[in-house]
Design brief:
heterodimer; A: 284 residues; alpha/beta; D-Maltodextrin-Binding Protein, domain 2; 2 domains; 9-stranded mixed β-sheet; B: 257 residues; mainly alpha; globular
Chain lengths: 284, 257
């Protein structure tokens, strides 16, 4: 898929004239580029329309919901929340759910900086600690996840247990220390008394898994749900429970509209939980 | 009548200036200046700064050593294929850097076009500082080549004829006449390429990964810190800004007009 994208982008362009005034352009380029690193974490989530829900239903039937629910969800929830969104929108035709995925740490920063989100679904509870308390209207755990070792299907470094990740010949990729999967992995390695041979610390769990999917790293520590989502592109190796770290996923309500409350209730309903669990997450 | 033409040019010019300058002011305004010295003393900053300066310097050297001859050949060639070659060179400019990173993995990775032949000798490029340099060169060299080629094309062809009648060889003409004349173009292209290399993020993180002291350059550190401590990220961004303005300012005073 990426290859075809590369081919499509290869439109020839001839900016020779543009480059004639190189000095000012260079100056501007530096400023722009230095800033790009700063601003790349923004989302394109649109604000909730018109303050959310309006009651339209007649007496007797449940009131029809309308509006937009903007959901920020952890990268590890990508597949399950895509389905939740579809199911919820099918049950509530008046409501649009917009989901933006990213590392929980980034999402929390976005909420604190005023991103117009109604719901935040986080990977782990420690990750939402920096969340400004006055923004939180409610929070409950809807899923759990455990760590797992992902290796390429051919398992080139012959990894069989967490102890193998300490070998100097095994190239291990982890999440950065600042994101939940990185913190959890660090705790697990401490418990297992293994010092992994880390070659890279990626910015989120999907990027970490990608290094194994691309067969450049020998092993990565990701969530069990990511191994399930990879659908055979990687092989999972369990980490024994005495070393493993369990993450509890809270869903945080950030606003009071009826549609928002309905969405959170839908995630916590038995149908919602079943959907989430079908993607490899554990029961709360 | 005069004020009208002034407004017709002045208003869009002012808008352009605002679009470019306001985000910079926002960054500077948001910074906690008293914290900057302690933020920059964070143990992760110095290795990233050192790595960024080393890799961008090597990238700049590669641009000059390999890019100048390429620009020269492109500037002199009138073959129809040259147009296509030039178009091909601009592809890395429009390619999303992450896609560039994937392309580099498919080339230099252990299953890649070239990488698979290096692997038996124990040579592995991804996750090394060499990968950072390759990523930076991939995105930065086109800027250099196109800028230098442009100024080489602008050379008066009679100069070459005269040099030839005086018995100068191709290389001698290049060394003693052409290069000194296009020096401003070389400096400009170098500044542009260096700046692009310094800000490189997508191709680096995809191809080289992110490891402190080995592949974690300043832009990667900014991104990681944005999730850890955003104030540190702002401080590093301001330092990155200061370093680039300083280097380009010096270049400007010396060579750029």
């Amino acid at each position: 898929m990426i290859r075809s994208q590369a081919a499509r982008t290869s439109t020839p362009a001839g900016p020779r004239n543009l480059l004639r005034t190189v000095a000012p352009a260079a100056f501007a380029a530096v400023l722009a580029i230095s800033l790009a690193a700063c601003g790349s974490a923004s989302t394109d989530s649109t604000p909730a329309a018109g303050g959310g829900a309006s009651t339209q239903g007649s007496a007797g039937s449940p009131p029809a919901l309308s509006g937009t629910v903007t959901v920020l969800a952890a990268a590890s929830l990508t597949n399950s929340f895509d389905v939740i969104k579809t199911e919820f929108e099918a049950a509530n035709p008046g409501v649009t759910v917009e989901v933006s995925y990213g590392s929980t740490a980034t999402l929390v920063q976005q909420v604190n900086n005023g991103a117009p989100a109604n719901v935040l679904a986080s990977a782990g509870q420690s990750a939402i600690e920096p969340l400004q308390k006055n923004l939180v209207k409610g929070s409950s755990v809807f899923a759990t996840n455990v760590l797992e070792i992902a290796v390429p299907p051919a398992n080139p470094a012959d990894v069989t247990s967490i102890n193998d990740l300490g070998k100097p010949t095994v190239k291990v990729v982890l999440c950065a220390d600042t994101v939940p999967c990185g913190k959890a992995a660090a705790a697990t390695f401490t418990k297992a008394r293994v010092v992994p041979n880390v070659v890279s610390k990626e910015i989120d769990v999907k990027a970490t898994l990608a290094k194994v999917t691309l067969d450049e790293a020998d092993a990565a520590v990701v969530y069990h749900s990511d191994v399930v989502a990879a659908n055979g592109a990687v092989k999972g190796i369990e980490i024994p429970s005495q070393y493993n770290t369990t993450l509890r996923y809270p869903i945080v309500t950030l606003s009071d509209e009826a549609a928002t409350r309905a969405f959170v209730a839908f995630v916590l309903s038995s149908k919602g939980l079943m959907t989430v669990q079908s993607f490899g997450l554990g029961a709360p | 009548m005069r004020w009208r033409s002034r407004a017709a040019l002045g208003v869009p010019a002012l808008l352009a200036l605002l679009l470019l300058v306001v985000p910079l002011l926002a960054l500077l305004a948001q910074a906690d200046w008293r914290r900057i010295p302690s933020d920059l003393a964070t143990p992760t900053v110095l290795p990233a700064l050192r790595l960024s300066l080393t890799t961008t310097s090597i990238t700049a050297a590669l641009c000059v050593l390999l890019g100048t001859p390429l620009a020269w050949l492109l500037a002199r060639s009138n073959h129809p294929a040259t147009t296509w070659l030039r178009a091909l060179l601009t592809v890395p400019l429009v390619l999303p850097p992450v896609v560039g990173g994937v392309a580099l993995l498919l080339t230099w990775g252990r299953n890649g076009l070239i990488g698979s032949h290096l692997a038996p000798f124990g040579v592995q490029i991804p996750f090394t500082t060499v990968a950072v340099v390759l990523a930076e060169t991939f995105v930065a060299m086109p800027y250099y080549v196109l800028a230098v080629e442009g100024s080489m094309r602008g050379l008066d062809t009679r100069l070459e004829s005269v040099a030839r009648t005086l018995g100068a060889s191709d290389l001698r003409y290049l060394r003693t006449v052409a290069i000194p004349l296009v020096l401003p173009g070389i400096a400009g292209g170098l500044a542009l390429a260096w700046a692009r290399a310094l800000g490189e993020f997508g191709a680096t993180i995809t191809f080289a990964g992110n490891f402190q002291g080995r592949t974690q350059t300043l832009p990667l550190l900014v991104y990681v810190e944005l999730e850890g401590d955003p104030a540190v990220a702002t401080s590093i961004s301001i330092m990155l800004l200061a370093v680039s303005v300083l280097v380009l300012g010096l270049l400007r005073g010396r060579w750029l007009r």
